[in-house]
TrEMBL record:
Family matches, as CDD domains: GGCT_like
PANTHER family named among the record's database cross-references: CATION TRANSPORT PROTEIN CHAC-RELATED (PTHR12192), GLUTATHIONE-SPECIFIC GAMMA-GLUTAMYLCYCLOTRANSFERASE 2 (PTHR12192:SF2)
Record's keyword terms, sorted: Lyase
Molecular functions (GO terms): glutathione specific gamma-glutamylcyclotransferase activity
Its EC number(s): 4.3.2.7
Protein name listed in UniProt: glutathione-specific gamma-glutamylcyclotransferase
One Gene Ontology cellular component annotation held by this UniProt entry: cytoplasm
BP terms from Gene Ontology: glutathione catabolic process
Length: 196
C-alpha cells in the first residue's frame, strides 16, 4: 500500500447522499479540531484500543526521522473514548489530506457519552473513523514504552514537535475524564526525556 491514502479514501461511497456524517476522533482529532463541524459530542467506540504505533512522516516527523502518532488496534471487549463531530461531506476532503499518511476511513458505530444528559439526544450513530492498519507503509508497531517515548521526544514535523501531540492528547483525555493507560504511561516516560 502507498503511504498517501487520499485517493483511496475519496473512493469511499458508503455515505454518498448523506447531508451529515459523524466522525470519531481519538488522536489529534480530539484536541485539534481545525475543521468546520456542526456539533461535537464526547463518544466512544467498541472493540478498539488507541496505540502510538503509527509512524508520522509529515505532521510530527519526517521520512528520515518519523514521529509516532495514534492509531487504533483491534481489541475485542475494549472501549476507546474520544470526540465525535457532526460534519458535512465537504469537510472530508481536507480531512483526507490531513490523515493521508496511512489512515483509511472505516465505518464504525459511535456511542455518545452524553446521551443521558438529554433524553432527546441519540445514543449511538453510524459514523466513520480514520485508522492506520499494520499493512500501511508508515506503520511502526509496538515497542517498549521507553523507546516510543524517546522517539517522540526527538521527533519533529511540519505540525510541530511530536511531544506536543502526545501531551495534548493526554491532557484532552484527562479533561474528558478518561484514563488511557497507554497514553498515561507514554507521557510519564516522556517526562524524563524532555530537555530543558
Ligand atoms: C484521529 O485523531 O482520530 C486520527 C489520528 C490523528 O489524526 O491523530
Amino acid at each position: 500500500m502507498t503511504i498517501d491514502t487520499t485517493h483511496i479514501n475519496q473512493q469511499m461511497t458508503h455515505f454518498d447522499g448523506h447531508q451529515e456524517i459523524w466522525l470519531f476522533g481519538y488522536g489529534s482529532l480530539i484536541w485539534k479540531a481545525d475543521f468546520p463541524y456542526l456539533e461535537r459530542r464526547p463518544a466512544h467506540i467498541r472493540g478498539w484500543v488507541r496505540r502510538f504505533w503509527q509512524g508520522s512522516h509529515d505532521h510530527r516527523g519526517t521520512p528520515e526521522a518519523p514521529g509516532r502518532v495514534a492509531t487504533l488496534v483491534r481489541a475485542p471487549g475494549a472501549i476507546c473514548h474520544g470526540m465525535a463531530y457532526r460534519i458535512t461531506p465537504e469537510t472530508l476532503g481536507p480531512l483526507d489530506v490531513r490523515e493521508k499518511n496511512g489512515y483509511l476511513r472505516v465505518v464504525t458505530e459511535l456511542h455518545f457519552d452524553d446521551a443521558h444528559e438529554d433524553s432527546r439526544a441519540s445514543e449511538s450513530a453510524e459514523g466513520l473513523v480514520y485508522l492506520a492498519t499494520e499493512d500501511n507503509a508508515a506503520f511502526l508497531g509496538d515497542a517498549p514504552h521507553d523507546a516510543i517515548a524517546r522517539q517522540i521526544a526527538m521527533a519533529q514535523g511540519a505540525s510541530g514537535p511530536n511531544r506536543d501531540y502526545l501531551l495534548n492528547l493526554a491532557a484532552a483525555l484527562e479533561r474528558l475524564g478518561h484514563h488511557d493507560e497507554h497514553v498515561v504511561s507514554l507521557a510519564r516516560h516522556l517526562d524524563g526525556k524532555i530537555a530543558g
